[in-house]
Design goal:
Elements lengths: L2 E2 L2 E2 L3 H32 L8 H9 L1
Antiparallel strand pairs: 1-2
Length: about 60
């Protein structure tokens, strides 16, 4: 039975395929963001961001 009261039932191989597709998409996104970060670092040099709470801790030391 492919349909239930709660909607269509995913078959095991379909679910596995969806998991692999999601994993591939997340890995692509991670690579893209890493590449973008590297390109931005080459073009613009800015001081690293430090959360204000951590700045206060550094000042106390």
């Amino acid at each position: 039975m492919l349909f239930t009261a709660n909607g269509p039932r995913l078959l095991d191989f379909e679910y596995a395929g969806m998991r692999h597709a999601l994993y591939d998409a997340l890995m692509w996104l991670a690579r893209t963001l890493e590449t973008l970060e590297a390109r931005l670092r080459e073009r613009w040099t800015v001081p690293p961001f430090v959360w204000p709470a951590f700045r206060e801790l550094d000042e106390l030391e």
